[in-house]
Structures are given as C-alpha cells and as structure tokens.
Amino acid sequence: MDLDPIIQRKRPPGILVFDAKGELVFLNREAGEILKAPPEEIKAALPREILSFSGKRGKTGSVASSFVLHGELLMTRTVDLHRASLKGSGSSHLMVIVERQRKRGGVDMTRIQDSFRLTDRETQVVGELIKGGSNHDIASALSLSEHTVKNHVKKIMGKLGVKSRSMVLCKVFEFSNSPGV
User: Can you give the pLDDT of all 181 residues of the chain as single tens digits?
Assistant: First the structure.
C-alpha cells in the first residue's frame, strides 16, 4: 500500500501529556485546535475518551482508539513515557497522540463492501470499528459474542490485506478518499 498520498495530506498530530496523577501537564497547539478549545479551557474541554486514558498510565502499554468529536473522527494512540530511577524504571507520564481522520458520515459503506467483498455482517463490524468500538462494544451493538467479533475482524483484516484494526481504518479512509470506480 502506497502511503505517500496519506502522508502528504496529514496534519501534525495533537499531543497531550499526563503525569502520574493523571493531570494534564503538556499539550501542543495542534491538540488545542483539534479539541477546539483555547489553552486556558482545555482541561474542561477534554472528552471522556481522552480522560479515560489518563488513569491507565502504566497499565495499558500502547492503546489505539477512535471517537467522534465535533463531527470529526479522531484517532488516538497512547504511549507510556518511562523515566529511569534508582528504584528501577517505571512509567512516569502518558502521552496521548490525537489525529483527525475524516468527517463523520464520509464513508460509503456500500462501496467498501463491494470493493473488498465483505459480507453484510463484516460491513456492520467495519461500521462499528469506524465508530471506535472495542470488540465488547461491537458485540453488544450487533448482538454477537466477542469471539465472533474477533473472528470477523480477522477476516476483514485478511480481505483488506492489513494486520491491525488501525490499518483497517486507514485503508477504509484511504479508499473512501480515492476517486470512485
């Protein structure tokens, strides 16, 4: 997959850093623009999806998620930042990277289904992935078991030729931005 067109359209990500107590200690200008709040109001503007990460420092490793805010699909990734100390190394801060993906409702699911030969159920699962659903969320929304959802996600990754849920979303959005067939 040629990523050059995606990279050229990419805007810089928003970066937020939380300390060990879950307090916001840093954010860049792009984070304020993405979250649509001035620096002095940013704490009040943080969506629950980002706030939920701040308490998971050191427990999650790297986590990718997506959610919709102000009509835009945002992708987030978390990274534990480690600091060496005399007592060993531990996670001292959590960095949350926030990136705009695509305006809500901009994916033609019929075109995605036809182009990648997805079943109706796989297409529904992709739709839930776009909303940022976990396997548990998707299972609840579609009245399936989490095991069944996991199998659908694996089949979708195979049909799209990718190896992660995040890459499923990237491929779907890249395809949605390409000219019609």
Answer: 566 665 555 678 889 888 878 788 888 988 888 888 776 777 777 777 676 665 554 454 566 666 666 656 677 777 777 655 545 555 678 888 888 765 544 678 898 999 999 999 999 999 888 877 889 989 999 999 999 999 999 999 999 998 888 778 778 877 776 665 4
Q: 42 φ, ψ to 5°?
A: -65, -40
- Cα–Cα dist 122/149, whole Å: 9
Question: 83 and 17, same structural domain?
Answer: yes
Domain that holds residue 172: 109-177
| 97 shares its domain with 114 | no
Domain final residue, candidates 50, 75, 103: 103
Distance CA 151, CA 135 (A): 10
How many domains is the chain partitioned into structurally? 2
Determine the Cα–Cα distance for residues 4 and 18; give it in Å rounded to an integer. 32
Q: pTM for the whole thing?
A: 0.52
Asked if 17 contacts 26 with a C-beta cutoff of 8 angstroms, the reply is yes
Task: Using the 3D structure, point to which of 83, 103, 123 is the last residue of a domain.
Answer: 103
